Amino acid sequence: MDLEKDALNLQPGECVQIKSVDEISQTLDKRRKFKALIFMPEMENFCGKNFKVFKRVEIIKLEETLEVRKQKSPAVSLEGVYCTGEYHDECG
């Protein structure tokens, strides 16, 4: 699959369905990352459900290196989807 070619260009307000855990797992590297974005255990709770796009994320800051990076294909933030920290000592 050519992920650059398959970029969805999602916009705020559009509805999306998050893929299943199995489908997402097939796209991750051995560190459970896709394009420097980690798939955390808390995210599994949202798989298979529908959400609205809140906003596009075109720039990220990598936690490990503090590097600011512009995404080649933007990610999106979804309404009501956030990390609870329940698997990471209730981190902020």
Radius of gyration: 13 Å
> Which H/E pattern describes the elements?
EHEEEE
Tell me about the largest β-sheet.
Answer: 3 strands, antiparallel
Question: Got a strand count?
Answer: 5
Q: Please identify the structural class as seen in this structure.
A: mainly beta
Biggest sheet strand order reads 1-4-5
The average pLDDT value, as a whole number, equals 85
Q: What's the helical proportion of residues?
A: under 10%
Multimeric organization: single chain
Count of helical regions? 1
Strand content: 25-35%
The separation of the N and C termini measures 35 Å
Outline: globular
pLDDT < 50 stretches = 1-5
Task: Walk me through what this model shows.
The structure is a single chain. The chain is mainly beta and 92 residues long. It has a domain of 64 residues. The protein is built from one helix and five strands; from the N terminus they run E-H-E-E-E-E. The chain has a three-stranded antiparallel sheet, with no helix packed on it. It has a two-stranded antiparallel ribbon with strand order 2-3. It is globular and about 30 Å long.
Architecture blueprint of SSEs:
Blueprint: E1 15-17, H1 21-25, E2 33-34, E3 37-38, E4 50-61, E5 68-78
Antiparallel strand pairs: 1-4, 2-3, 4-5
